[in-house]
Amino acid sequence: MPRHAEQSEFPSRLHDRYGPAALVTGASDGIGLAFARRLAEAGFDLVLVARRETVLAEIARDLRGRHGIDVQVLAADLSDGEQARRVAEVASDRDVRLLVAAAGFGTSGPFVDGDLAAELDMIDVNCRALTQVTHAFARRFVERGRGGIILMSSLVAFQGVPRAANYAATKAFVQTLAEGLHAELRPRGVDVLASAPGPVMTGFGQRAAMRIASGQTPDEVAAGSLRALGRRATVRPGFLAKALETALKPLPRAGRVRMMGRVMVGMTAR
Q1: Interhelix angle for 165-185 vs 116-123, to 10°?
Q2: Is residue 87 within 8 Å of 56, Cβ to Cβ?
Q3: Closest C-alpha to 230, from 1, 10, 32
Q4: Which residues lie across from 235 on neighbouring strands?
């Protein structure tokens, strides 16, 4: 199919296969917000989840006005197990058939110098809450025989990363979970995708104390991921992610660890 034809049929294919509604975590900014906007353009009703209720409410008003869709806002801190459970319960009372788990954050610097509470919070958000929400929606999708799940992996998921060791470990968990679920759930009508971008120009770098001088846009990541859903198990969305994968692929795993360590030194130098 020609590229322009694929792009024109993309929104309708997406909605026909995974509509009428989608839930997006981490929807207040960055990649999560880009997913919300793309899905709104495709006609999805939305459930938007993030910590900042005021920001979510403003986004919801804008998307309703632009696209005439129904948008529900759910303020939740996914590092709190009880709040993550409330998000999971949305599966029982909304016709959500697409889950985009974009919530997450990172830390950087030597692991032994880091704040343990922050490292454990990151595991809670990036791994435990993601698993909790994914389990609830996957069960619901299997019962219906149809659904889609996008889990945000990363370029750092494929090897250890000095100065971002715990963050890379959480993304390795997400990548492995998505790969397993892709094979497990596809025969039951549910598509699962790991999206593994490279550096992205969002507020992530500031929170993680990383300097990201150049990178992909959140919209590139969202568009590439949605286009790949149902067609493969893992996508490196955008040119930069593919270029970085190509550069790292010939190296043995230990070589990739050393290379990523040098990159992180440059990104985290104070």
Answers
A1: 10
A2: no
A3: 10
A4: 195
Domain that residue 9 falls in: 3-268
Which residues form the catalytic set? 167, 171
Three-class SS of 163-193: CCHHHHHHHHHHHHHHHHHHHHHHHHCEEEE
pTM assigned to the model: 0.89
**Distance in angstroms (rounded) separating the CA atoms of residues 146 and 130:** 20
For residues 208 and 108, the answer to whether their CB atoms sit within 8 Å is yes
The count of structural domains within the chain is: 1
> pLDDT digit string (tens) for 187-220?
999 999 999 998 876 554 444 445 555 568 999 9
Contacts of 68 (CB under 8 A, 6+ apart): none
Residue 3's pLDDT band, with cuts at 50, 70 and 90, is very low
Token duo for residue 124 = 């809670």
129-173: per-residue pLDDT in tens? 999 999 999 999 999 999 999 999 999 999 999 999 999 999 999
Task: Report pLDDT digits (tens) over 4-40.
Answer: 444 556 678 899 999 999 999 999 999 999 999 999 9
Residues 132 and 83: their CA atoms lie apart, in Å, by: 11
- Per-residue CA distances from 59 to 19, 41, 185, 220 (Å): 20, 14, 32, 19
- The backbone torsions φ and ψ at residue 146, rounded to the nearest 5 degrees and listed phi first, read -165, 140
Task: Output 1 or 71, whichever has higher pLDDT.
Answer: 71
Instruction: Tell me 113's DSSP state.
Output: G
And the tokens for 204? 């992530």
Angle between helices 3-18 and 218-228 (to 10 degrees): 70
CATH number at residue 257: 3.40.50.720
Residue type, 207: R
